[in-house]
TrEMBL record:
<protein>
    <recommendedName>
        <fullName>C3H1-type domain-containing protein</fullName>
    </recommendedName>
</protein>
<dbReference type="InterPro" id="IPR020472">
    <property type="entry name" value="WD40_PAC1"/>
</dbReference>
<dbReference type="Pfam" id="PF00400">
    <property type="entry name" value="WD40"/>
</dbReference>
<keyword id="KW-0677">Repeat</keyword>
<dbReference type="InterPro" id="IPR036322">
    <property type="entry name" value="WD40_repeat_dom_sf"/>
</dbReference>
<keyword id="KW-0863">Zinc-finger</keyword>
<feature type="domain" description="C3H1-type">
    <location>
        <begin position="159"/>
        <end position="186"/>
    </location>
</feature>
<feature type="repeat" description="WD">
    <location>
        <begin position="197"/>
        <end position="238"/>
    </location>
</feature>
<feature type="region of interest" description="Disordered">
    <location>
        <begin position="138"/>
        <end position="158"/>
    </location>
</feature>
<dbReference type="InterPro" id="IPR015943">
    <property type="entry name" value="WD40/YVTN_repeat-like_dom_sf"/>
</dbReference>
<keyword id="KW-0862">Zinc</keyword>
<feature type="zinc finger region" description="C3H1-type">
    <location>
        <begin position="33"/>
        <end position="58"/>
    </location>
</feature>
<keyword id="KW-0853">WD repeat</keyword>
<dbReference type="InterPro" id="IPR001680">
    <property type="entry name" value="WD40_rpt"/>
</dbReference>
<dbReference type="GO" id="GO:0008270">
    <property type="term" value="F:zinc ion binding"/>
</dbReference>
<dbReference type="InterPro" id="IPR000571">
    <property type="entry name" value="Znf_CCCH"/>
</dbReference>
<dbReference type="InterPro" id="IPR019775">
    <property type="entry name" value="WD40_repeat_CS"/>
</dbReference>
Length: 490
């Protein structure tokens, strides 16, 4: 039995229910007739704008709504389900599990001293605040998940002004202070925008900051990896791979580039390069753990290569993990478990020791877009407009213990810590925004806006984090004041 080290007190008060009810978006807007829920909205068919009835109660579990204007992500996923068309990108989720590849070079070079902060570190930062997260399952999805001592929503995150002006983003807004929308790239006072790195012509599909390096690497659907100087922000090199890049991660001195039908391994210290063949279709997600490189592919297979310093080729094919019936588009690792999400709407749990599937979970009603481990919990997000929190059961299975509703489909995850070492979850949605949630309360602590959907996010040292969007823009952010580095746990 996996012991839960953290828990959450859930206050199902009437005032909280009322507060959260205002967060659930109504299509129509405007005034509503009190205590009357729209019947057509419950069936997912209401197209009134405004609608005089409430769009506030939970719809039937098999019915969820989308925006009238579907995003590129949504269109890509739907087309992939019905054909062999390739998704134009795929964000990856990098675990933080130590292994020999983090220090391996062609000649057995020295290990890097830099340690990346880990969102899934397992530290007891919130031991005093978090009480019985399992109790959340006793409350309805319209109630908040709140911990004692957590701050409420930041004062500057106003419900009435959570949309950036699209004309302002294009330098075309003439309304000035009279504009009803925000003239800002973000809302929140505990982080700031350092710089915008402009150069990619298509969606950013991966960001990597290798250990000990002063260079930042970004991969894109435009087929290039761009290398940026971390001191000046200047572009220093452009590497063309001649094909769409579906994912990009780093481990120690290694850069791994997910391509169509291949993975490129490149050592930035020795300049050694390896072509890892075997994938069928685009490689959308990669993860490294316990000396093994995992790659999720378009045909639903997860390929694994074992790192071996004694082998001239260094990477030995280990196995193929089969079971998903749709493309594997996200991977993460936690406590000797590999978690994979797919367009088949399922999450699979794999034992890293024997490389076998031990559980299949069907909690989502649409593609599982991203996964992240937080202490003893697994968080998943989907185009079905939900974020789900999973926890271990007595029989070492996992079950959903809390569901957070989103207004739009959720695309990608990233976890950071604020200056007080409190965990913050970044969740990008297909309305071109990133929501920043304090955990475990899910109180919104800020919002980031972009011209395109933010498709990949990554953390760096000293409170730095990165967001890359569908328009090819890579933004660098900084947490205000001193940042508490959380020690990594193997």
């Amino acid at each position: 039995m996996v012991q839960l080290v953290h828990s959450v007190i859930v206050f199902c008060t009437s005032s909280m229910v009322a507060e959260i009810s205002t967060i659930h978006t109504r299509h129509g807007g405007g005034s509503v007739r009190s205590n009357v829920v729209c019947h057509f909205w419950m069936l997912g068919k209401c197209n009134r704008n405004p609608c005089r009835f409430m769009h506030r109660e939970l719809p039937h579990p098999n019915v969820y709504q989308r925006t009238s204007k579907q995003s590129n992500v949504l269109a890509d996923i739907q087309s992939l389900k019905s054909s062999n068309q390739v998704i134009t990108y795929r964000p990856s989720k990098r675990p933080n599990v130590r292994n020999s590849l983090a220090s391996a070079t062609e000649d057995g070079g020295s290990e890097y001293k830099y340690t990346r902060e880990s969102f899934s570190s397992g530290t007891d930062i919130e031991a005093d605040n978090v009480k019985k997260i399992r109790e959340s399952s006793k409350c309805s999805n319209t109630s908040d998940l709140t911990a004692e001592g957590d701050a409420s929503e930041d004062k500057n995150v106003k419900k009435s002004s959570r949309k950036a002006c699209e004309d302002w983003m294009s330098n075309d807004c003439v309304k000035g202070d009279g504009c009803q929308f925000l003239h800002s790239w973000f809302v929140g006072d505990w982080f700031s925008l350092l710089t915008k790195l402009d150069g990619h012509t298509e969606a950013v599909s991966g960001v990597a900051l290798p250990s000990g390096s002063d260079k930042l690497y970004s991969g894109s659907s435009d087929g290039t990896v761009r290398v940026w100087d971390c001191h000046t922000g200047q572009l220093t090199r452009v590497l063309s791979f001649g094909d769409e890049i579906g994912s990009l991660i780093s481990e120690g001195p290694w850069i791994f580039v997910g391509l169509r039908n291949a993975v490129k391994a490149w050592n930035i210290v020795t300049a050694a390069e390896y072509n890892l063949n075997g994938p069928v279709g685009q490689v959308y997600a990669m993860a490294v753990a316990f000396d093994v490189l995992f790659a999720g592919t378009q045909d639903g297979v997860i390929l694994a290569w074992k790192g071996n310093n004694e082998n001239p080729n260094l990477f030995e094919p280990a196995t193929s993990l089969k079971g998903h019936t749709g493309a594997v588009i996200c991977l993460t690792v936690g406590k000797k478990r590999l978690y994979s999400g797919s367009t088949d709407n399922t999450i699979r749990v794999w034992d890293v020791d024997n490389l076998r599937c031990i559980h299949t979970r069907n909690g989502h009603a649409d593609a599982v877009m991203s996964l992240v481990c937080w202490n003893e919990y697994l968080l998943s997000c989907s185009l079905d407009r939900t974020i789900k929190v999973w926890a271990a059961t007595e029989d070492e299975n996992i079950e959903v213990i809390y569901t957070h509703e989103e207004e739009y489909g959720a695309i990608a995850f990233c976890g950071i810590y604020d200056k007080e070492a409190k965990p913050v979850l970044l969740c990008s949605c297909n309305d071109n925004s990133v929501h920043l949630y304090g955990l475990p309360s899910f109180n919104e602590r800020g919002r980031i806006f972009s011209k395109g959907e933010v498709r990949t996010m990554e953390t760096g040292p000293n409170g730095i984090f990165f967001t890359g969007d569908g328009a090819g823009m890579l933004n660098v952010w900084k947490i205000a004041e001193s940042h508490v580095i959380v020690p990594q746990v193997a």
